[in-house]
Fold these 3 entries.
Entry 1:
Amino acid sequence: MSSEQQLPCTFLEVEGGYLLRLMKGAPVMHTLEAFLARQEIYGGVISAIGALEAVELGYFHREKREYQRRKFSGVYELVSFTGNISRVEGKPFVHAHAVLSDAEYRPIGGHFFEGIVAVTVEAYIRRLSGNIRRTPDEETGLKLLEFDR
């Protein structure tokens, strides 16, 4: 996405961060990370609510050192989306977990890989200062948070 292209979201800068509304059809993680890059946000916290479809969640298997990924079709309420923002290989990276609810009010949740906005997603991003990054961890196989004190 070039810097001139319009992102599928609107936003308001507020004290300490941003309020965003992602548009119907927008890929959540792609849109968030593109927005963060444009605003040069490499550290922060994020929370969101809304409605999603075509969601991919994950569960991390410690023994296998990999995520078991699962796709969910249909429309879900995004009950809770919470995570942090750090730098990975020079780019903003969102690590988030989500809880979704179906039409029968059954919850599902896990590591959030991607989802498409079904109606809207309303997010709050709080910018944090400092060198917040992720680096590979040999024991887990994950990129874990690291920061200077």
Entry 2:
Amino acid sequence: MEYIFPNDFIFGTSTAAPQIETAFEHDWQGVTSKDGFVFERTTDHELRFKEDAEIISSLAPHYRMGLMWSKLQRGPMENLHQATVNEYKFFLDDLKNRGVKIMMVLHHFTNPNWFSKLDSWEKESNIRLFVDYAKKIIDTFGSYVNHWNTFNEPNVYASYGWITGFFPPFKINPVKAAIAVRNMGKAHDIVYDYIKEKFPDQPVGISHNAVVFSAENVLGWFPAKLSD
């Protein structure tokens, strides 16, 4: 069966800064996987901006990306690190000149160590810290952006961080998972309003991870429904 994509369908490529840049003082730095890989050096994206821009522009006209919070803001409420701002602007200028449209992700699973030490999304008082960072990113890089994504898969982040304990902060506490989701939701609302105030025509949303669970037997029926 042949499927025709609508004219406004967005084809693009996607990365996350912590997954392609060398780790810098964030809560995934030094994490060791089951196969022994230590999360530290990745693909040296920060050393290959021009090369990566060429690859990105050759594949699709849109690019979903993020910036490394821990590298840009090195303490609570601090100004953005200017050298890092300049590096990202060099990359974004190159993409813009190549005609690539940007979807900017503001939070993709990682937090600066200083934010984690304050209990990250478990504390409602920390919402203002993320909002401060987000506003500075919007003010600094907004002219490069076509679409905004405030949070990448907050359901996955909370589930793996506070229910299974697979992601930082490696906790098993469903109550704190719910609190984290609530606080990210509140942060999204504030940042959404700020983006719409600055750039009324730019779409703003959250990336959702939708998974369907099927029970193998009657005992699995309720957990499957709960997981859905």
Entry 3:
Amino acid sequence: MAILGLLVDDLLSEPLTTAGRLDRLFADVAATAAAAPVYFASLTGELERELAVPAVSAARTEQLTSTLVRLLTPGVAAGEVREDLPLRFLAQMVGSTYISVIRYWRESPDYDITLNSARASHFLTGALAPGTG
């Protein structure tokens, strides 16, 4: 999660839209999986095991949600992120999608993480946009 926080820091330091930040977030997970598939599968598998422990799971989930709230916050002021739902809920939906893309990749050797990461980002951009509710 610390690495994700650093990535979000980098994304927030650049003049990107919410769509651009999401594209880069999901492109990063795809690039990491492609560059070091064995390591990435091992790392994400270890995280899954840790999440089976409620105390660890709650802390990691909170860290993920807080990090993604930071990622989405500038989009609210820019009119790119809907305000009819709580920002924390929207961040949870982004986090759920992010984790699901990784899980599907780990479970299926035929899963195209690059394509599906791009699809996930595009889907979330639409779901987060004002007026989509």
